[in-house]
User: Fold this.
Amino acid sequence: MVREQSLFCKILIFLQVIRLSFEMNNEFVPEREDLFSECQDKPGFDYMDKFGDFSLLSRKRGKNGGTYISGNITMVWDVEPSDRVAVEGYLLKLEGGIWKPTVLKASDKDFCRSFYDKKTIYYPYSTEHVINKDEVKEKCLTNPGTVLVVEPFFQRILINFAVPLTVGRHKVVIMFSAFDKAGVKRPRDICMEIIGDIVHA
Assistant:
């Protein structure tokens, strides 16, 4: 199976949360058509193939730089349904061959609580397109075998800058962790990154 990723909704959790505070139109253009790759500097972290089966999730680059997305995602993460899920994301910029941190970071200590919340900033860009949400919204990402059916839609990562970011090569790193009822983190952390360029839209 091709090692796919896409809970693009995850990267969007990060990029689109930032979106409301921006003022100048720019676009994040992913390097890869399938969007995500393994984290190179996170030893001990699993990749998205341990998180979900994305082999039936289609991602095709459009002529105007966006991505056409449709298909199914089947969760396979080996955690307990009652676990709390935390997510963290941050943006790095490539300078002089070194990935350096930027001011942009985001985190959610209880992701399952807000995953299908229509009031969240990222909902229109991600979970809004899960058409069987009423069937699966109580299962979040922690129930292996849960299938998320994604309607066909077109995604461009448009951003507005009111923060000190410049055009050029960047990457977003997204990490998921599961915690049991006692608050102990399980040794099944997930990490993925998306490399691309910030350009003027």
Summary: Residues 17 and 61 are 23 Å apart (CA to CA). The first strand starts at residue 25 and ends at 30.
